[in-house]
Structure formats: C-alpha cells, structure tokens
Structure prediction request, 371 residues.
Amino acid sequence: MPHVATADPLPLPTWPPTSPAIVDSIRQAAESGDWGKYAAQASRSLADRLASRFDVEHVRLCASGTAAVELALRAVQVRPDSEVILAGYDYPGNIRAIEAVGAKPVIVDTEPGRWVIDADLVEQAIGESTTAILASHLYGDLFDAKRLRELADQRGIALVEDACQVHGASLAGKPAGSWGHVGVLSFGASKLMTSGCGGALLSSDDRIAQRATLAAERPSGIAPLSGLQAAALLPQLATLDEWNAQRRTAVARLKQLLAGSRIWQFAEAMPYESETTYFKAAWFLSAGIPRDSVIAAGLAAGIPLGTGFNGFLRRARRRYRTVGDLSQSEICIDRSVVMDHRVLLADLDVIDTIAERLLAIERDLESKADA
Prediction:
C-alpha cells in the first residue's frame, strides 16, 4: 500500500448541514401542526418551488429517488416485456427499477473517459420493444440530454432523466431534470439537498403526470415525502446556488492543483454548453494503479475516498440484453475513485491540503514502482 504519513484530521463540514434556517423551518412545521397533515403546506410549497426552479409543470414528491424512478417508468408506460436502455455504469437501483416493472434492461456503453451513457450507442440499441431510455448524470458529468431528448422524440419513446446527483445543473440553458419527458431528483442522505431520504418526479407532460398520480395514489399516496421532510428541504433550495458555487470552486481548485498528475484523471470535458454541479469529486485511476491500495492510503491520510458503483455487468446475461462492447463501462467499474460529498463544501485551504496528500500518494506509488 502507498504510504502517506498520518496527518492532522481534516476539518470537514458536517452533513446534513447544521443550519438554523433548517431547524427553524422544521420547528415551524412541528409547532403549527402542519407536519401531521396528508397534504402539508410545506409539501405544497416545496412542490411549487421545485416546479419553478426546474421549469416544469408538475412535481410529485416521493419517498426516495429510487421510488421516483420506478414511478417514472410506470408513468411513461413501461410494461412487462418492453425494453429500457441504460448505461453499463449506473446506480444499481435503476436497473432494479426496470426489472421491478417487468421490463428488460438493454445495456450500452458509456462514453470514453466519462461516466455517462453514449448517445451514439443508444441510437443503435433502439428496437421494436424499446419503450424508454433511462439516463443518469453522474459525478458532475452531464450526459447529452438535448440529443437524447431529440432522439427519443424522433423514435416515439420516452426519456427518463436521472438528475438525482445534479440539483441546479443546466445544459443548453435548461435545468438538468427538465430535458426528459420525466425527470427524477433524489433527496437522499448525501445528496446536494437532503431530507435523509426522499425524491421527486418532474414533468411538463399532463398525461405523464396523470399516470403518475394514478400509479401513486390508492387513494392515499403509497410512497410520499412527509411534511417534516419538505420543511427541511425548503431552506436548502434557497441556498442551493450558493452551495453549488462552492462545490464548483472546490472542484476547479482540485483540477488546477492536480493538472500534472499521472494517476488522478478527471472526466473528459463535456463537448456542449453546460453548467454542472458536483455530488462527489471523482477520478479515473490510470491503468495498472492498485485502486484498493490507493483508497486505503487516502483513508489513512484522512481523505474520505471510496469506489464508485459496482455496476451490474457481472449479473446473469439472460436478465438483460447488451449492445456492443462494454469496455468503457468496465473501466468505470474498475478504476473509478470518488471522494465524499462533504469535502466539496470545505474551505479552500482544506482543498489545497487534500490535493497535496493525493499527490503524495502518487509520489509514493512512483517511488515503489521505481524501487
């Protein structure tokens, strides 16, 4: 394992944030009794503000981002024996949501040097049974939502846009989450806005919204977000731009300080107009670098590193169809390293220290290779 001398612990921000505004909002909901209603005022306010922020007509609050993905698939009429296209590297809950509605996943590769679905391969994968594309923005890397929406419209299928990690990002001037026929947000414990768990379905299609309502209400909601959770989220929506600016500044600083690195490789630049935000900082390790050893060295140096998603390419192939080579997805699975989301809200002197320690890990690896 690379050796990095144990240093002083890094002063990382707490998460969820210790914000007086969040405490006050929850207290107000509790003291007013609003929290105990089926349709709490806080929930209605949150839905209205999300609709305005994401420029959509309809918002349905859900118990989780995963529940919102499954509901979205039902709302766009994904049925048993139909097919849904997704990338070979994605959040595992997405493939399970496809299977939960009885559909068959069709897996295509990611773009080279990136964590997002390859739009060229999506076009090749569309067949007679294709009902939808389920595509995710990951680690601040935004897929080409404009192109996939145009493709979906041309072929008469639905685009389900997973924007769970990128609240506040935009592509070609439109909010991420609003490009799909239906978009999905997550308010899970580590997301850019959190209520511990929770999510939202976004759409401007009246028919999709109606189907989501029919699927989710029996007659009370089967997986709602509570009024107290909504109360916790409202102040975070108000500060989202400020937090996202800090996250972008932190990643820009890391890119600057690690520009000469031979092992810490950021994703390739997005070749279209965008303003992203970051759930976690992420890298591809260079080929041949022992990822487990690098992560262990990072943890020993006080840097909260981990692997990305394990992927689902090693599951029984009878459960899904693949199109083309999946070598880029394998790279994402085997060589991705991510850093805990809290780091990106730390002061810049902490970011500088982290960069120094990451480079120290690299130097130690090189010295061992030369020995």
About this structure: The chain is about 40% helix and 15% strand. The domain at 240-370 is CATH 3.90.1150.10 (Aspartate Aminotransferase, domain 1).
